[in-house]
Amino acid sequence: MPKTPNAFILYRREKQFLLRQNYPKMSQRKLSGMVSRMWRNESPIIRGKYESISLMLAINKNRNTRRSVGPMDFENGSTHFFVLENCSSTSNDDEFINSIFDFDAYTQ
Fold first, then answer.
1. Average pLDDT, stretch 47-57?
2. What are the residue boundaries of the HMG box domain, all occurrences included (predicted)?
């Protein structure tokens, strides 16, 4: 199961998308360096926004992950192994991120 993206990765994903539109021929190495400098210079409020989104992704992922609970022993001596699963949500990280970031707004 892939790891939930951290705040910088989310920031990088959004900024790289925008920079790629303005500088389509720029190398990946230069883009990464540019985004890294932008991140270092961001205000705590902006960085906190991405930290919050990363946390929401982690919570969403944990809610939709199968996880075992058990074994559980009952008074009658039987032991059962439970698996909890939330089947109501089919969203993945990319769908969730796209619902937060309106990438189409940047292409108009």
1. 88
2. 2-52
